[in-house]
Specification:
Blueprint lengths: L1 H11 L1 E3 L1 H20 L3 H18 L7 E6 L3 E3 L3 E9 L8 E6 L5 E3 L6 E3 L6 E10 L3 E5 L2 E7 L4 E3 L2 E3 L2 E6 L21 E17 L11 H7 L3 E9 L2 E7 L16 H18 L3 E7 L4 E6 L2 H11 L26 E6 L4 H12 L3 E6 L17 H19 L4 E3 L7 H17 L1
Parallel strand pairs: 3-13, 16-17, 16-19, 19-20, 20-21
Antiparallel strand pairs: 1-11, 2-4, 4-8, 5-7, 5-10, 6-8, 9-13, 10-11, 10-12, 14-15, 17-18
Helix pairs in contact: 2-3, 5-6
C-alpha cells in the first residue's frame, strides 16, 4: 500500500503546463487528420511532438523542491545591513529546468532587488542558494517571508505546486540615543552599583573631613588635619550604591509618521530609542532598571541589572505598541504601587492625553521621584491655511498643552524635552536636591 501511494503522492507534486497541453493537442490533431484523410505523411510531422513529449515525461522528477530561508544575523540594529540566503534543494536525481523563488518582504525591510522573483538552476541532488542583501530601516519584529518556490521540469511540460517555507523572524533593536547623566541619584537602594550616592559610606567620592567616631577605620585618618587641630579626624566618602530606575513609556498615542532610521522619527520612535539609551546608561553603571508601559495594556519588566537584563530590555522594547483604541482607558491596575518609593521614575511621554498628566500627578502625590521627559519635542504644525479661522485650533491645542505642563510643574513634576546626552542633568540635579531635603526633614 505504501509503495502504491508514493507514486500518486509524487504525481500530485507536479501539474501539467500549457506547453504539455499544446504538445498533446498538436500530436493528436495531426494523427486524427492523417487517419481521416489517409495522408499518413502527417504522422511523420506528429512523431517529433509525441516522441519528445514522451521522453520528457519519462525523465520527470518525482518530488517537489525544498526551500528554506536563513539570515546571517537574525539580531540586528535598525539601519544595519541585512544578509539573507534562500536555499533551494532538489531531492531528485534528475535536475529541474528552472526554480522560481519569490520572497515576501515586510514594510521596513529593503532588499537590493526588491521582492521580485528569482530564478535558480538546481541540479539533481544539490542545493542552490540565492544571496540577498538589504537593510532594516526601523526597530521591531519583522517577519521576512513566507517564501514560495515553483519548479519547472520535463522541458517545461510540468510545474510543481507552490512549496512554501515559514516566515523568518527578524529582530531589529532600536538605535540607542546616547544618554549620559552625571548627577547623583535621589536615593540609592543597595551597595553594589557604581552610582554616587548622597549618603556617606565606603566609596571613592570625597564627602568631607569629620571627627573620628566609633566604627571609623584607622586607614581613613587624615593625619594632616589631625595634627593641626590636635584631634583625630577621618576622611568621609560617599558610598557607591546601585539605584533603581523605572523607565515608564507612555504608549497611549502615536503621533507623527515614522520614516525609519533615515527619516523623521515619530513619537513612538523617540520613546523607544530614548528608553534604550537610558536603560543602557544606568545598566552600564551597575544600577537596576525596570520598565513599564502605560497604554491600552500595562506591561512590566522587573528591575534587574547586568548585560543579560540589557538584552532582555531590548527584547521587551520590541513589543511596545500604541493603544489600539484611543478611547479605551488604561487598566485600573496601574498605580503608584507598581513603583518602589526610592526609585527614580523617568516617564517618556508626549503629553498628548490628559490621562498621562493625571498619571504623572498621581505618582508625584504618592511621593515618587518623577521626571517627565517630553518625547514630542517641537511639534510640526501644518502650514497656515488661507481660511480665516484655520490656525485657531492649532493655537488652542498649543496653549492647552502648555497649561498641562505648567500644572505638572506646580505638582513638583519637572518636564524636560528629550535631547540626548546631558539633556536631563539639570533636572536630575534638582530631583537629587529635593531628595536630600526630604531625608533631612525625615
Amino acid at each position: 500500500m505504501a509503495d502504491a501511494s508514493a507514486p500518486r503522492s509524487h504525481a500530485r507534486a507536479f501539474e501539467p503546463t500549457r506547453a504539455l497541453g499544446r504538445a498533446v493537442l498538436v500530436s493528436g490533431v495531426l494523427v486524427l487528420v492523417a487517419v481521416l484523410t489517409g495522408r499518413f505523411d502527417l504522422v511523420i510531422l506528429a512523431a517529433p511532438f509525441a516522441i519528445g513529449t514522451a521522453v520528457s515525461l519519462v525523465r520527470r522528477p518525482g518530488r517537489a523542491p525544498t526551500v528554506a530561508v536563513t539570515a546571517a544575523e537574525p539580531f540586528l540594529v535598525e539601519g544595519g545591513d541585512l544578509e539573507v540566503r534562500v536555499d533551494v534543494g532538489n531531492p531528485n536525481p534528475i535536475g529541474f529546468d528552472l526554480v522560481v523563488v519569490r520572497l515576501l518582504v515586510p514594510q521596513w525591510v529593503r532588499l537590493k532587488h526588491s521582492d521580485r522573483p528569482y530564478a535558480v538552476d538546481v541540479q539533481g541532488g544539490t542545493i542552490a542558494g540565492v544571496d540577498l542583501e538589504g537593510r532594516v530601516l526601523r526597530w521591531g519584529r519583522h517577519p521576512l517571508g513566507p517564501v514560495a518556490a515553483h519548479a519547472v521540469a520535463a522541458d517545461g511540460l510540468l510545474i510543481s505546486r507552490p512549496v512554501r517555507a515559514p516566515e523568518l523572524p527578524l529582530k531589529a533593536y532600536p538605535a540607542i540615543e546616547h544618554f549620559d547623566a552625571a548627577e547623583a541619584m535621589p536615593r540609592a537602594a543597595g551597595h553594589v552599583g557604581g552610582h554616587r550616592s548622597r549618603r556617606t559610606g565606603e566609596g571613592g567620592e570625597l564627602a568631607g573631613v569629620r571627627r573620628f567616631g566609633p566604627g571609623d577605620r584607622l586607614r581613613r585618618i587624615d593625619w594632616r588635619v589631625s595634627l593641626r587641630t590636635r584631634e583625630i579626624h577621618v576622611v568621609s566618602t560617599l558610598s557607591d550604591r546601585d539605584a533603581e530606575v523605572v523607565v515608564l513609556l507612555d504608549a497611549l498615542h502615536e503621533a507623527g509618521r515614522s520614516g525609519g532610521i533615515e527619516g523623521r522619527a515619530s513619537v513612538l520612535d523617540t520613546t523607544v530609542r530614548a528608553a534604550a539609551g537610558i536603560a543602557e546608561h544606568y545598566l552600564h553603571r551597575g544600577d537596576r532598571v525596570a520598565l513599564l508601559q502605560y497604554g491600552g495594556t500595562v506591561r512590566h519588566l522587573r528591575a534587574a541589572s547586568g548585560r543579560r537584563h540589557y538584552m532582555t530590555t531590548l527584547e521587551w522594547l520590541l513589543d511596545v505598541a500604541p493603544a489600539g483604541n484611543a478611547d479605551e482607558p488604561p487598566p485600573s491596575s496601574f498605580g503608584p504601587h507598581m513603583v518602589q518609593g526610592n526609585a527614580l521614575v523617568m516617564v517618556l511621554t508626549p503629553l498628548l492625553d490628559i490621562r498621562s498628566a493625571a498619571m504623572l500627578a498621581n505618582l508625584a502625590r504618592a511621593g515618587r521621584f518623577v521626571v517627565a521627559v517630553d518625547t514630542l519635542g517641537n511639534p510640526v504644525l501644518p502650514k497656515r491655511s488661507a481660511a480665516k479661522w484655520a490656525d485657531i485650533p492649532q493655537r488652542l491645542w498649543v496653549l492647552e498643552r502648555q497649561n498641562i505642563i505648567a500644572q505638572l510643574r506646580e505638582h513638583g513634576v519637572p518636564v524636560v524635552a528629550w535631547g540626548g546626552a546631558g539633556s536631563l542633568d539639570e533636572v536630575l540635579r534638582g530631583v537629587a536636591r529635593v531628595a536630600v531635603g526630604r531625608t533631612i526633614t525625615a
